[in-house]
């Protein structure tokens, strides 16, 4: 093997090692970013008080503790409560809406307070924080 060929082989090995180190660094950076995103998601933000959520909060335990639905899962109980809500008249729903509005109006500063506290909260990281997609080289097809 000539000196030139040996030098080329050495450079190729070094390039491969550099690629492996870069890949390891990218992986580490991704893991650190994922942990940071998880910390932001773990923030316990208060639930919105809508008419439906208040209705569910009040009726969920009643249905769960009733004898006929003791063996039901939570999703089934929610389905029952949602069906009750759908069958409810407009006057009854309006009473729940007024109740939700009174809770919201009880503390008018809560909106700005929540904005200050949860400014970094991310519901869905979406595309901007998603893992970068690998670029796949297209293979050329010879005819």
TrEMBL record:
GO terms for molecular function: DNA binding. PROSITE patterns: HMG_BOX_2 (PS50118). Gene3D superfamilies: High mobility group box domain. Residues 45-104 form the HMG box domain. Keywords: DNA-binding, Nucleus. Pfam families: HMG_box (PF00505). GO terms for cellular component: nucleus. Residues 45-104 bind DNA. This is HMG box domain-containing protein. It comes from Odontella aurita. The lineage of its organism: Eukaryota, Sar, Stramenopiles, Ochrophyta, Bacillariophyta.
């Amino acid at each position: 093997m000539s000196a030139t060929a040996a030098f080329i082989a050495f450079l190729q090995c070094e390039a491969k090692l550099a690629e492996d180190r870069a890949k390891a660094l990218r992986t580490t950076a991704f893991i650190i970013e994922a942990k940071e995103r998880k910390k932001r998601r773990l923030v316990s933000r208060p639930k919105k008080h809508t008419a439906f959520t208040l209705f569910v909060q009040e009726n969920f335990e009643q249905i769960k503790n009733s004898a006929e639905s003791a063996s039901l899962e939570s999703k089934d109980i929610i389905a029952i409560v949602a069906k009750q809500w759908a069958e409810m008249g407009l006057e009854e729903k309006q009473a729940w809406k007024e109740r939700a509005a009174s809770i919201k109006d009880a503390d008018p500063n809560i909106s700005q307070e929540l904005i200050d506290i949860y400014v970094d909260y991310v519901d869905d990281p979406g595309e901007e924080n998603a893992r970068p997609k690998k670029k796949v080289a297209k293979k050329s097809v010879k005819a």
